[in-house]
Design a protein that fits this description.
With 388 residues, this protein is an alpha/beta fold. It has helices at residues 11-24, 36-45, 62-72, 87-95, 108-138, 146-158, 175-184, 203-211, 228-231, 247-259, 285-290, 296-302, 319-334, 343-350, 357-371, 378-384, and strands spanning 2-7, 28-33, 50-54, 78-82, 100-103, 165-168, 193-197, 236-240, 261-263, 270-272, 276-281, 305-308, 340-341, 375-376. It has 16 helices and 14 strands.
Length: 388
């Protein structure tokens, strides 16, 4: 059921609007309010999918209702209706966040189309928020140790800027999580987050992957194809394992960062791009520069801000929090009850040498949940969390 609230001081008009809506769609559940103040109380008490609101009303006019709703429940689309309409009023209400403005008497087809479109938009907004919450949970940064607190503090300061960030650290430490948090907390969070694993793409294909190509540029180029830079326009491009990128591709990435332009493989036409680049590597890039495998000028372009993600062995105090997080997540994925870990079991896990870092810890937790007792004990860890 779509819940619609009509705020209108004239009873006859309310009756007509209710009749129109209920006859149009049996799934419309329509509520009424005779003035703005009463309407706001209903909005606070219930969840509505759409509001139809008159402008000229006693106690609280429609513009004041619009401003109040945008503060308390901004996701609800509001269609303003007025018999005293003029262009300035319409423009003002749209500027304040109204979905649409309709003059009285309303054109029936336009009113119904506007309502359908507004309800579709509300559904999209809710779904986008749900997906963002899901994404945030998938890339949640767990830890309260000094190194993690420092990283979170840097992200809070850097994310709202356009500064490029280079994330370093061993494999399995969570460099990808840092990149996602930088994107989600940035002004670009409404745009795409595009990831490229430079180590997983053959050297001869990396340029096509990043910059796209035109038909006939090489043997298997059967049609024009946009690259990751274009796909990430207005968003963030995450270049993971950038230390494995070929020198030829590095030169083109450098040009893209300098000029905000790219060229597809096989074409000399410039394409403007607006992309924030975040890069990550498990290599010592200064050593790679010294040995001629990485461009020093590209390094300085990428490393405006450096974030070093610590090995799990350097943040052992976070292990109980990570174990609890993974236990909850794995139980949810498997549809089983969450298992608790005894204090002795956690202490034993804290003492291990985690060469595989967080990735290894997650595997061990999953193994313990599958094979261990109802409460994971020290003996379970000794039996099933073998480090050999």
């Amino acid at each position: 059921m779509s819940k619609i609230l009509i705020i209108e001081d004239e009873e006859a008009i309310r009756r007509v609007l209710v009749k129109i809506l209920t006859e149009e769609n049996k799934d419309y559940q329509v509520s009424e309010s005779e003035d703005g103040l009463a309407g706001i109380e209903l909005i606070k008490a219930s969840d509505f999918d759409l509001i139809l609101c008159d402008i000229k009303m006693p106690k609280m006019d429609g513009v004041e209702v619009l401003e109040a709703v945008k503060k308390i429940k901004p996701e609800i689309p509001i269609v303003m209706i007025s018999g005293h309409g003029d262009l300035d009023t319409a423009v003002n209400t749209m500027r304040l966040g109204a979905y649409d403005y309709i003059s009285k008497p309303p054109d029936l087809n336009r009113l119904l189309n506007t309502i359908r479109n507004a309800l579709d938009r509300k559904e999209l907004v809710v779904e986008n928020k749900r997906l963002k919450r899901k994404i945030s949970q998938n890339y949640k940064m767990i830890g309260e140790s000094a190194p993690m607190s420092n990283i979170k503090s840097i992200i809070e300061k850097v994310a709202p800027t356009e500064a490029r960030v280079l994330i370093t650290g061993p494999n399995g430490t969570g460099k990808e999580l840092v990149a996602h948090w930088l994107h989600q907390k940035s002004e670009r969070s409404r745009g795409p987050m595009v990831e490229v694993n430079c180590a997983a793409i053959p050297a001869e294909l990396i340029e096509s992957e990043l910059f796209g190509h035109i038909k006939g540029a090489f043997t298997s180029a059967h049609k024009d194809r946009a690259g990751k830079f274009e796909a990430a326009n207005k968003g963030t491009l995450f270049l993971d394992e950038i230390g494995d990128m070929s020198l030829s591709a590095q030169a083109k990435v450098l040009r893209a960062l300098q000029e905000n332009k790219i060229q597809r493989v096989g074409n000399d036409k410039d394409i403007k791009v607006d992309v924030r680049v975040v890069a990550a590597t498990n290599k010592d890039l200064k050593k790679e520069i010294a040995e001629g495998r990485f461009r020093e000028d590209l390094y300085h372009r990428l490393a405006v801000i450096l974030i070093k993600v610590p090995a799990l062995n350097d943040r052992r105090d976070d292990i109980p929090l990570l174990v609890d997080f993974f236990s909850t997540k794995i139980a949810s994925e498997q549809g089983t009850a969450k298992k608790q870990f005894s204090g002795a079991a956690l202490e034993l896990l804290k003492g291990y040498n985690w060469t595989g870092n967080i990735r290894e810890l997650r595997n061990v937790v999953e193994r313990l949940i599958i094979l261990g007792s109802d409460e994971i004990s020290e003996n379970d860890v000794i039996s099933f969390a073998s480090k050999s």
